[in-house]
Specification:
This protein is α/β, with parallel strands linked by helices. The protein has one domain: 3-Layer(aba) Sandwich (Rossmann fold). 43% of the residues lie in helices and 15% in strands. The protein is built from 8 helices and 7 strands, in the order βαβαβαβαβαβααβα. It has a 7-stranded parallel sheet with strand order 3-2-1-4-5-6-7, sandwiched between helices. α4 packs parallel to α5. The chain starts with 6 loop residues before the first strand and ends with a helix.
């Protein structure tokens, strides 16, 4: 019951990493406010958690008023805010000349502005109670480039450096702000690749551990960053990627030569 008495807000909480984090925090004693645009899944998860420590609220993280209202609702219902997990995000697949302007704007609004809005809403509440922890979902795609993911790469790279800036701004207020950078994760969003012949095996081959992460594996790192075990960590950018960013990108010569 590491999080007994703590209150957590999770954006993008209806599925994938957000849902896994909600289950983890709730199982360890926290009260959880889920936010998403998928009302059916969000309400179902809140009902599955099954007590007065879980609630769902619809919120579009690209809209400041939605995020402000989300945090206000959480503090009104549960009395405080200890942990903010800014997890909501969307992807994009296009090279720059082919990227619709509205798609660029949407990715930046959700993936970057949504994180900023979450921090902007959460920090005053945490100040009032003497501290808190914020975890932002960035990506290994914010640490390096991907083919045809220009908008996503730009947004996630910005989340990483924004996390650092916010962390040092608020370190002396006992508000810790860190980011997790997942590699490929077996979420509903990415499940569509399984309909494309050969894509999953080729993608697995790029991961030294040879597989995608389970959402619960990312949630475990989020829970660590939110806990007192990470009390001296702020501004940290943590890759949880099965070894992807440890690799130079050069070919596996032993495997090519039949040595393993």
């Amino acid at each position: 019951m590491k999080f007994a008495g703590k209150v957590v807000v999770i954006t993008g909480g209806a599925s994938g990493i957000g849902a896994a984090a909600a289950k983890r925090f709730h199982a360890e004693g926290a009260s959880v406010m889920l936010a998403d645009l998928n009302d059916e899944a969000g309400n179902a998860l809140a009902a599955q958690l099954g007590d007065n420590r879980a609630s769902y609220r619809r919120a579009d993280v690209s809209v400041w008023e939605d995020v402000e209202s989300l945090v206000s609702s959480a503090t009104a219902k549960f009395g405080r805010l200890d942990i903010m997990f800014n997890n909501a995000g969307i992807g994009s697949f296009a090279q720059t000349p082919d990227l619709p302007l509205e798609e660029w704007d949407r990715v930046i609004k959700v993936d970057l502005n949504g994180v900023f809005y979450g921090c902007r809403a959460a920090i005053p509440a945490m100040r009032r109670q003497g501290g808190g922890a914020i975890i932002n979902t960035a990506s290994i795609s914010g640490l390096a480039g991907d083919y045809s993911f220009a908008a996503y790469n730009a947004a996630k790279g910005a989340v990483i450096n924004y996390t650092r800036a916010a962390a040092i701004d608020h370190a002396r207020e006992n508000i810790r702000i860190n980011a997790v950078c997942p590699g490929p994760v077996a979420t509903p969003i990415i499940a569509a690749i399984d309909s494309m012949q050969g894509v999953r095996p080729a993608w697995n081959e790029c991961v030294p551990m040879g597989r995608f992460a389970e959402p619960s594996e990312i949630a475990s790192v989020v829970a660590f960053l939110a806990s007192g075990d990470a009390s001296y960590m702020t501004g940290a950018i943590i890759a949880v990627d099965g070894g992807v960013t440890a690799h130079t990108g050069q070919p596996n010569l032993p495997r090519m030569l039949g040595a393993n």
